Amino acid sequence: MSGINVTATAVFIFFFVLVTVMGFIAARWKAGDLNELHEWGLGGRRFGSWITWFLLGGDLYTAYTVIAVPAVVYAIGAYGFFAVPYTILIYPFIFLTMPRLWNATHKRGYLTGADFVYGAYGNKWLEGMVALTGIIATMPYIALQLVGMEKVIQALGFPHEGMTGHLPLTIAFLILAVYTYRSGLRAPAMIAFVKDIMIYIFVIAAVIIIPAKLGGYGAIFDSAQKDFAAQLATNPNVARGVLLAPAQIWPFITLAIGSAMALFMYPHSLTGVLSASGPKAIRHNAISLPAYSLVLALIAMLGYMAHAAGIKVQNPQDAVPQLFLAMFPSWFVGFTFAAIAIGALVPAAVMSIGAANTFTRNLWRPFVNQNMSPSEESTLAKLMSLVVKIGALIVILFLPTQFALDLQLLGGVWMIQIFPAIIFGLYTRWYKGGALLAGLIVGLALGTYLSIGPTSWVPVSKAFFGIPLYNGLTAVIANVIVATLLSFILPANKSDELTEADFRDAKA
Amino acid sequence: MRYILLLIPCIASVVTPFYNMTDPMLFGIPFFYWYLMLLIPVSSLFIWLAAKTGGDDL
Fold first, then answer.
1. Number of structural domains found in chain B
2. What is the 3-state secondary structure (H, E, C) of A31-90?
């Protein structure tokens, strides 16, 4: 193992040990009875504006994002920037809808999005499908956090292949699994402070130091454009460049809109929102979370900086780690890699908790055991959080990474399909549960069908008049049409326990 | 008013043909990039304004 960067690895391990200790201590933070699911899985809904800011920031802007967004920018340019309009679109949406969802869930004791769907429509099959969609879409997302982590561990000089190559990743993930089991949502909430501050430090350093070394932003964009022009000369089939090609514009817009609609349907996003202490904390965050979007935009720029620094990699996902190795002293490389790896732990933990909460509440409870006590719920959710994480680890260890990437792409397409059930339900109960279920199934089927490409899964297809649109968006339009038409025909919902007052802020 | 204020940054972020250009540049950064990055804090401002005018509890 002569290739290991000792200084960087030592710094890396230091920070990793630090957050591990925090993960275990977190069980005692804002102490509550962890044998109750709302305490283990939602932190007792006691996270104020600041904690929610760090937790949601750490939860939504994942390690995979830090690796993947600049990788797309490095590979094809401006198209990768779709992440910026995407993350602009989500906050007006959160501001409007999520305080309503929080109020209703708090008043009625719901813990998940699917709990709310059951309360609104009284249809356990719809509830179950919403939960199942969320869980299946989340699993590959967790697996991709491992990819982000593996990239930086490899860049430290650890071998790429074989069981010894996977050993550091396996150890890191098992530690994560144990303290999530013990501390629940409090663990990622506490670790998120460290992670987010580290990310801010390395991004600010990177966007100042790297351009200074490479001759400024003008030179960076020039050299990226030069590389793209050369690549276009050899392979004109893949559009790339510092600006969007005309054919990329509709995919860019629809991918941004579709991704924004999908994000807050994921169980981990809802877990982050529902653990807030109130609608006020959510509104504060809708205004302040865009700070992370700015960081994401700057991280995306790293893809161009890699061109200017002459980084040539086979796999674009290696571009950022290699850029840091070329630009920074070893100790700071260790710091940035630790930030990325810890950046994987926070979302992986929240995702597994979110999936475990919804499995327990919306699959196990309605379909297997209707009379679970709070402590039985908590025990089952803890076990599920382990199962989900070990499942993700097995996927990464034994299946090609492409498998997780493809599933993640499909996961986004699937996730949007629960948008009508949850978001429409915040404003009207006119829709019928059975109609929304039919729409959801049509959306899932159509989205999956559209994504089957000639050689691989594709995110975009020409659905209307030859205009290329994001499949998730096309499918959700079909979903809404089916749900609307059937709602005219089907009989009224069996139960509707919600009233408009449930959605409004409680009077202080 | 509240809804219009929230809609403005959303529309501004998806009128892609309008901002898909190089000039005017800022510090060597093409318009496409600095426009989108500037829009991030601007969108925050609009959400804050929507909260203020809508009488939401902040």
1. 1
2. CCCCCCHHHHHHHHHCECHHHHHHHHHHHHCCHHHHHHHHHHHHHHEHHHHHHHHHHHHH
Contact residues, A window 57-86, toward B, CB-based 8 Å cutoff? 78, 81, 84-85
Is A258 inside any structural domain? Answer: yes
For A385-429, what is each residue's pLDDT tens digit? Answer: 999 888 888 888 888 777 777 788 888 999 999 999 999 999 988
In a domain, A407, yes or no: no
Mutate to test the interface with A, among B1, B2, B10 (most CBs of A within 10 A): B10
In whole angstroms, give the CA distance from residue A97 to residue A99.
6
Q: How far is CA A110 from CA A45, A89, A116, B22, in A?
A: 11, 26, 6, 49
Place of tokens 């600049």: A70
> CA of A473 to nearest chain B CA: how many angstroms apart?
15
What pLDDT digit, counting tens, does each position of A119-133 carry? 999 899 999 999 999
| SS3 (DSSP) at B33 | helix
pLDDT 10s digits, A291-341: 999 999 999 999 999 999 988 888 888 898 899 989 999 889 889 988 888
Q: Mean pLDDT, to the nearest integer, of A178-197? A: 88
Count of domains forming chain A:
1
- Per the structure, the complete domain to which residue A180 belongs is given by 6-401
- Does the predicted interface ipTM exceed a cut of 0.85? yes
Distance to chain A for B13, nearest Cα, Å? 5
Q: Which amino acid is at A11?
A: V
Cβ contact A95–B51 (<8 Å): yes
Residue A275 contacts residue A43 (beta carbons within 8 Å): yes
Question: B41 and A290 in contact by Cβ < 8 A?
Answer: yes
> A483 with A420: CB under 8 angstroms?
yes
pLDDT single digits (tens) A330-385: 889 889 988 888 888 889 999 999 999 999 999 998 999 888 888 888 999 999 99
CA angle A471, A456, A391 (to 5 degrees): 90
The DSSP letter of residue A329 is: -
CATH number of residue A112's parent domain: 1.20.1730.10
